[in-house]
Amino acid sequence: SDVGSQKERVVTEEEWLQKWEMGNIGFHKEQRHPLLQKYLDVLLNGRSGLRIFFPLCGKAVEMKWLADMGHSVVGVEVSEQAVKDFFSEHSLPYCEEPVPEISGAKMFQSTSGNISLYCCSIYDLSSSIVGKFDGVWDRGALVAVNPCDRQRYASLMINLVEKNSSYLLVTVSYDPNKHKGPPFYVPESEIKRLFG
Ligand code: SAH
């Protein structure tokens, strides 16, 4: 099908903040994603104590789940409300500190230290700030990125992962002429083009 109808669409950060403010967050799910449960072994590949990245994390409940398994979770999210809701909804105490390398950014960290959520745009991050990751859970992330920013997003993600990392990506398939997105329709050919 033709993705041309979505190519020009842009959702601004301000619009995302508004969605959170209005409670317009149908993308958030209270239950763990069935595909993460199904492919958890692929993500972990027999390893423990991984560093796992959640791009465009929202308040994804899977962050708590993976942290409870002993992994170290890092997320990035523009909405401070989402980040604070995550910690309060899981009754997790946290502290908040500025990120010296990124003006205006804050990092929220669980007191136990195993969940760190950066409140800023993902495009402000680099491996010199957040390090590299052994695993990525990309759900509602690539498909939420504006089509014009996909290349930049993919290049950044490639930079943020270790050589022996696993990257789980969830996309949705539908007729892009019938919905404007997000989530945007990202065909497999596009994923191959972006990630090789
Ligand atoms: N992955 C989450 C949220 C998906 S919705 C989940 O599975 O529930 C996409 C999220 O990305 C929204 O919470 C939005 O506020 C956030 N977002 C949008 N653009 C962003 C950007 N450039 N940097 C960081 N977060 C962003």
UniProtKB/TrEMBL annotation:
PANTHER family: THIOPURINE S-METHYLTRANSFERASE (PTHR10259:SF11)
One GO CC term on file: cytoplasm
Entry binding sites for S-adenosyl-L-methionine: 16-27, 56, 77, 121-122, 139
Cellular location(s): Cytoplasm
InterPro entries for the chain: SAM-dependent_MTases_sf, Thiopurine_S-MeTrfase, TPMT
Protein name: thiopurine S-methyltransferase
Catalytic activity: S-adenosyl-L-methionine + a thiopurine = S-adenosyl-L-homocysteine + a thiopurine S-methylether
Recorded superkingdom: Eukaryota
Family in the record: Belongs to the class I-like SAM-binding methyltransferase superfamily. TPMT family.
E.C. code: 2.1.1.67
One GO molecular-function entry: thiopurine S-methyltransferase activity
Gene Ontology terms describing biological process: methylation
SUPFAM superfamilies: S-adenosyl-L-methionine-dependent methyltransferases
Signal sequence extent: none
Database matches in Pfam families: TPMT
Keywords: Cytoplasm, Methyltransferase, S-adenosyl-L-methionine, Transferase
